[in-house]
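I need you to check the entry underneath: sequence plus fold tokens. Let me know what the token row says about the fold.

>
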Amino acid sequence: MLKLLVFLPVFGAALLAVIPGRHRQLLWRLALAWALAALLVTGALLVVFDPAGAPVQLFESRAWNARLGSYFALGIDGISLAMVGLTALLTLVAVLVSRHIDSPRLYYVLLLLLQSAMFGVFTARDWSLFYVFWEATLIPLFFMIDRLGGENRQRAALNFFLYTLGGSVFMLVALLFLYDAAPGHSFAMHDMAEGGRGLPPAMQLLIFAGLFIGFAVKMPVVPLHGWLPLAHVEAPSPVSILLSGVLLKMGAYGLIRAAETLPAAFVAVQDGLAALALASLLYGALLAWRQQDLKAMVAYSSISHMGIVLLGIAALDPAGFNGAVLQMVAHGLSAALLFLVVGLLYRRTHSRDLADYDGLRGRAPRFAFFVAFGLFAAIGLPGSAGFVAELHVLVGAFRHWGLWVIGLGLAMLVGAAYGLRVVGHLLRPAVRSTGPDDMSGSETVAAGLLAAGIVVVGIWPAPLLTLVGGSTARIAALFAGS
């Protein structure tokens, strides 16, 4: 089933590649069908997965290069399955709102190849395979930004590529050190974790530094965030949905896997990670508050929300890990919703300036509703997925740092300020008598899917907590008493 999941989008991309680009509607319908198929396979995985069962399920492995100890090994636990579900849902949403995209054949082919690589990252159980899929995400993203983005698309694409590739070099060197320490010189995650835990703390710290740079660039963590605002602003909005909703989560997911492998290093740098998390929280929120460009505002707010994820991981306890994974899902849904509606508004008005949307409630009520809903979800309003996630992170962090976590509260207040500022503009009397056409049927369905996910997780988080709880508890047990 996991091989089917990973390679199903590749087959779809191959089919779409031979269809002439002038058949825009056919390309869209076929891409939608493949995205739905991937979501159905994900649903089947959710049905067969047993949260109380083995740590890694549906495991399959085949020798890739036996002499090097490299295997094409796939498997899932609760954390990876949650990320696979998020990837499948957001890809479907990205296709739904891409009916009028330029160069549709190129776009849909790259989109499906990107989905395949993201599935591979979250299901790989071999570090060499993980690295291959990690790097494979760069290629379609680079061309999607470079070929289909805004005026500064080439600068944004190159900036993104160089930042991420530079971080990956440090990650590769760190993995080679781990490979040397693994029993039998194997890239299998289990073997490398066993070898990593047996290393002296100083060596663990050295290896951790390399892995952290690679993952922190992707998250991104301040001060390694320089690529993100420009990439988000210049990328097509459906691409921004995946970039913010899934690609940033790859960094946090990799960091959680690194925590399993190098527990002594994480304990040693726990306070430093918390300091970086709070810096990202406040820095991202303050910059979002100052933005007049709606897309830039959402981009900078992503830095702040990923700071919450980092703080949850740094807590190294079950509540913190649960909060980090919940925040990954919650931010994926809320950021995707905001990028979706802002992108649709820009396509109609060719403006992202906040002042141009004064009185939007009276001119395009569905747009106004989803913008306001996404902002309230992003600031963690009770009843939303973000509230549940931030509460778990707050509980986990308070156990370790006490009142120092007041920084999280300050960031939430700033987030509330920029959210309410935008809502205030939407509710003002309209300066213009005419406005953008309201959302179409397929656009409303796409936004409704995301809004429904936010509400369901916010009101009934138990299924998601049950799904990831066994995996997070096993990781947290490595740090019991630290």
User: Anything to note?
Assistant: The mean pLDDT is 87. Residues 318-349 form the longest helix (32 residues). Residues 127 and 187 are 5 Å apart (CA to CA). The chain has 21 helices and two strands.
